[in-house]
Amino acid sequence: MDGTRLDLNLLLALEALLAERNVTRAAARLNLSQPALSAQLRRLRDIFGDPLLVPARRGVIPTQRALELQAPLRESLRALRSVVAERVHFDPSAAELTVAVAASDYAQCAMLDRIVEIQRKAPKLRLSWRQLYAPELVGQMERGEVDLAIMTPNTAPKQLLTLPLFDERYVVIARHGHPVIEGSIDVEQLCALTHVAVSPRGGGFAGPTDVALAAIGRQRRVGLSTASFLIVPELVARSDHIALVPERLVLRKSRDLQILEPPITVTGFTLGMAWHERSDAEPALAWLRNELDS
DNA sequence: TGAATTGGATGATTCGGGAC
DNA sequence: GTCCCGAATCATCCAATTCA
After folding, report:
1. Protein A100 CA to nucleic acid C8 C1', in Å?
2. Is A170-267 in CATH node 3.40.190.10?
3. Nucleotide nearest to A32 (CA to C1')
């Protein structure tokens, strides 16, 4: 390899090519024309003495050498971006930008206080919430359609960087004046009453509650499945149904609902953030992540 | 300061492979 | 066989940089 001919732009080109696996899209990502990036790829091949990316059915696929380069290249560029970013001062009070955040409606609800505080500190910051769909998240972030995702880190795509924010637990909710439930609930009542369940993708009737019940040889009846978390407290408040929901969803709902300790152990979850390496050193996004984590 | 070099853009073309 | 897509290449031009 002839290292004297290597410049940073070529490494950025290789990074984009490895991420997109398509010369045309990688060129668009770098704001270059396809022939210009093709020429950079030619120089990279010349320098590394390896084809690096070879034509495939759709786009290009990396050679073994290119795959070996991918991780160290990512780390090196990340370090370089950090060095540059440290010198850029971000002023939240004056910053005018729009940040796209993917999250479930529960996650939006859970982060409400922090969002209000962030918008107080950065009044010109516009947050664009969009529905979280994990399988498309990496592509959305690579295309710049999503800057940050609020999700459980263990379900985040492996290509993304993650940071846990807080642990969440489940509580049982029932309406005040419920004919059966008053102040507490036992396993018999939990299994006898009709539940409202959330299935973000729609149509599902099983969740962590069913896993916990199955572990003790019991089951429940889900009478209503909804794709939205936010509607569940309202449904429970207006019916004799009950629900197991993340605690932060109903923290301010005790006037309308009884919030009860579950009679079984339902495994909670960790809510966190996920973001793409390309925005890791972005000062505004780094500031936002730091605020969400505070 | 002007020539040489470098890198990128544009437009056109070729080539290979897949879909129909 | 034809069409489409994507990669690669070529010719030409332009702007920025380097160097004598």
Report:
1. 37
2. yes
3. B8
Q: Where are the domains of chain A?
A: 3-86, 97-167+271-292, 170-267
Residue A208 contacts strand C, CB under 7 A: no
Q: Is residue A8's beta carbon less than 7 angstroms from any atom in nucleic acid strand B? A: no
Which pLDDT tens digit goes with each residue over A74-114?
777 777 666 655 555 678 888 787 889 999 888 998 898 89
Alpha-carbon distance of A65 to A62, in angstroms, equals 8
Q: Which nucleotide is nearest to A33 (CA to C1')?
A: B9
Between A172 and A279, the higher pLDDT residue: A172
CATH T-level assignment (fold) for domain A97-167+271-292 = D-Maltodextrin-Binding Protein; domain 2 (3.40.190)
Query: Does the CB of A57 sit below 7 A from strand B?
Result: yes
